[in-house]
Amino acid sequence: MQSVWRAFLRLFFRLLYNELAWSYDLVAWLVSLGHWKAWGRTTLRHAAGERVLELGHGPGHLLAALEEQGFRPVGLDLSPNMGHLARERLRRADIDVPLVRARAQALPFHDGCFDTLIATFPTEFIIDPTTLREVTRTARPEGRLVVAVGARFDGQGIVAAFLSRLYRVTGQNEPPPDALRLWLEHTELSPRIVREQVGQTTMLLLVAKRL
Fold it and tell me: How far apart (Å, rounded) are the C-alpha atoms in residues 16 and 128?
């Protein structure tokens, strides 16, 4: 039964990120009680330097926020649907940010070219050892990887309780900190766990520095 459920979730998230990308913002807003963009923006205060790569840029909200705060961002995503949404959003805001369609496991960038790499609520690609090698390769010495890993609803109420349970079922809830450290145990990245308060929710972030 669990294998069937995982297969269903993979299909749902694939459709949401591709053929149903037009509904992504609405779904994200609903399942986060309106916190989705604020959750993503918690990564900004942990970014360092100027050159920032967002892995899985989605509809482009964080890229616009990075540009507005003076960073020089680049967006990477494999989904052509998300590429279209992000391109249109940035065009309407008169923001020029390079967008690249590629896999995180094969970043088309030279060694040490980014100060920070960011991912918000990434799918399983982020734990792929090949992705971590590419992150390490393209990060400058002492560069950073910042990952918005999960969220927890601290408020009371039926809706918050329902969403907390939903996040546990879908695997989007806050993972154990030890699991995050083990994930980077054999890499050249030194992690620390950070929690940020957003309204009545708590965000869990992983901030890892390249050794």
Answer: 22
